[in-house]
Amino acid sequence: MNFQGFIDSLSFMGLGMASIIIVIGVLILAVLLLNLFSSDKMKTSRKVILVVAFAVLLISLSLLNGMNMDRAVKEYVENNKEKIVSIFENNVGVTGLESEIQVQGRGFIITFKDDTAQEISESEKTQIQEMFNTYQSYFEDMLLDMKKDIKELEKYEFRVTDAKGNIYLTIVADGK
Amino acid sequence: MFFIHYKGETQMEFLIESLQMLQWQQVVMWIIGGLLIFLAIKKEMEPTLLLPMGFGAILVNLPLSGVITQTDPNTGEVSNGILDVLFRLGIDHEFAEMFPLILFIGIGAMIDFGPVLSNPKLMIFGAAAQFGIFFTFSMARLFGFEINDAASIAIIGAADGPTSIVVANTLKSNYLAAIMVAAYSYMALVPIIQPPVIKCLTTKKERMIRMSYEQKDVSKLTRILFPIIVTVVAGLVAPSSVALVGFLMFGNLIRECGVLDSLGETASKVLANLVTIFLGITIATRMNGVDFLRWDTLLIMCLGLIAFIFDTAGGILFAKFLNLFLKKKINPMIGAAGISAFPMSGRVVHKMALKEDPNNFILMQAIGVNVSGQVASVIAGGIILSFFG
Fold first, then answer.
1. Triad B102, B106, B112: Cα angle to 5°
2. pLDDT in tens, A88-113
3. Which residues in chain B have Cβ-Cβ distances shorter than 8 Å to A3?
4. CB-based contacts of B220: which residues, under 8 Å, 6+ apart?
5. B222, B378, B388: which to substitute to probe chain A, counting the most A Cβ within 10 Å?
6. How large is the ipTM?
7. pLDDT one-digit tens code per residue, B362-381
8. Mutation test of the interface with chain A: which of B141, B219, B231, B232, choosing the one with the most A Cβ atoms within 10 A?
9. Contact B353/B360 with Cβ under 8 angstroms?
10. Alpha carbon of residue A160 to chain centroid
11. Which of A20, B7, B160, B362 has a CA-to-CA distance to B120 between 20 and 30 Å?
C-alpha cells in the first residue's frame, strides 16, 4: 500500500474534476450562446455585435497571453543569467569569456567577447561559422534543455565577438 | 509413411514442438479467449470487440505463434508477425495510435448531439460522471501502481475504449491489455453494474421524479458550429486532447454539414467497422498469457469496476446536490447516464424510471446526458494526458 502516493494523488482528484467542470462549463456557455445566435429571436445587428465582441475577446486574450509569455521569458533570463552563461560555458567551451545577455521577445541574445581574437579575416569568419553550423542540432538540443525550465522560451542567439566587439560567429537556435 | 527426411535425419519432432512449449498460462488464455467469444455471441456483450479480442487471445497464445513473430525455417531469422505489425502501425504511440483515433471519426459520425444541443445544461452531468476516473487514479496509487499506470487504469472509468487505448499507450502503461479488456467488458456490463449503484444512492421517491421535456429544434448552424467550437475550446484548455476531440468532432462535422452524406455514412459504418475489426484483434497482441495472467490484472479489473461504480455515483450525487437548490427537481438517476457507454447507460436509466413509474419517460434527458458523457470522457482523457503525459 502506497499511502503517500494516495495522499499526493488527492490533489489531482480535485484538480481533475475542477478542470473538467470548467471545460464543460465553457462548452455549455458556448452552446447557449450558439443557440441564441442561431435563433430567429435575435436581431441581426445583435448577432454582429456578438461576433465582434467574441473576436475582440479572443484577440485580447491572445495579446494578453503573448505579453505574459514575453514577461515570463524576460523574468527567467534576468533571474538566471549566471545559470544560462554556465550552460554555454559548459557546452560550447566559452569559459572565461566576458558575456552579456539581452532579452528579445520570447528569446535572448547571448554574446561572448573573445579578447584573444584580434584581427579575424572574412575567410576565417566563414570557416568558423561553417564549422559551428555543423553543430546546429547540438545548439537546438541546448534550447530544448532550457525549455524544460521555461517552456515559453522560443529561441536564442549565440554570438561571439572579437576584442573590438565585431561579431564573427552567430548561431540561432529556434527549434525549426 | 509419416516420416519426414530432412538433412539426412528422420524427424517428426516438429509435430510436437509447439506442444512441448505449451505453458499453462497459454491454456488459461485460451479459456479466457473462449469466454470472451462466448460473452460476445451468447450474451451479445460488445460483440464487435470482445469477439475479435477473444479470438486474438487464442491466436497469440499458441506456442511459437506466427502472428507475433515469424521465424524463417531455413535461416532462423526472426521477423515481425502480422499482429505485431498491426499493433505497431495502429495502436503504438510511435504512429500516434492510428486505429483508435480513426475509429473516433466513425464514432463522431454516428453521434447525434441534438439532445445535448437542445438542453446544453445536461452536459454538466457528463462532467460529474467522470468522477470515477479521478477517484480510481487515487485508488490505483494507493495499491502501488506507478503514476503512468495509475492514470491509464483510471481512464477505464471513461467507459470509452478508444480513449483508454490512446491514454494508456501515450502514457506507456505496462497494462494495456488488461485495461482494454476491463474497459470493454465493463462497458458491456453497464446494465448489470449501474442499477444496484443507482438503487443504493437514490430513494424510490427520487427515482419517480418526473421531468418535463420540451422538444426544441436545433438549427443546422448550431449543429455545424458545435463540433468546431468543442474542438477549439478543448484544444485551448487541454491541448493533449486535440487528437481525441478533434477526430471525434471531425466525424460529427461530416455528419452534420449536410453535403457529405456519403462520407458520413462511410465513416459511421464502413470505416468504423473496418477499424473495429483490426482494433479488436490487434489489442489481443498484448494478451500474452505470461504477461497477462498476473495479480495486477485482477487488481486492474477490480479498479475498473470501482471506476464505473464511482462514475455512476458521481453523476447521481451531483444531481442530488443540484436538487438542493432547484425548485423543479431533476431525477437524480439521469446523472448516472453521464458515463460514455452509449446508449446503454441512457437506456438503463430510462428502464429503471419506467420500472418505478410506467408513465415516467426520461429517455430524452438520459440520452442527452449520455451523449454529454461521450464528450466529457474524451476531454477527461485529454486532461489526464495534460497532467501526466
1. 140
2. 888 887 787 888 899 988 899 999 98
3. 142
4. B256, B258
5. B222
6. 0.81
7. 888 898 899 899 889 988 98
8. B141
9. yes
10. 23
11. B160
